Amino acid sequence: MFFLKEEAEKILLQSKQYDLLNQLYQSTNEWEKAIDISTHFDRIHLRNTYYNYAKHLEENNEIEKAIEL
User: Fold this and answer.
1) How many domains does the chain have?
2) Which residues of 29-57 are buried (b: 16+ CB within 10 A; e: fewer)?
3) N or C: which end of the chain has fewer CB within 10 A?
4) Which domain holds residue 40?
């Protein structure tokens, strides 16, 4: 399974499909990578990425950190 994720990541980077790469990172809880991709290549989804990360933190009882976002 890990190999498939790496392969998908490689293909999405090569094809410059940053929106899908952002979704991949979000679905695998790699939030720092998702925010980094959004910040540099997928700005249209940046606000949504932060929102999803905050919701993830809220679900995991990290309320203070979620409020910051």
Assistant:
1) 1
2) eebebbbebbeeebeebbeebbebbbeeb
3) N
4) 2-68
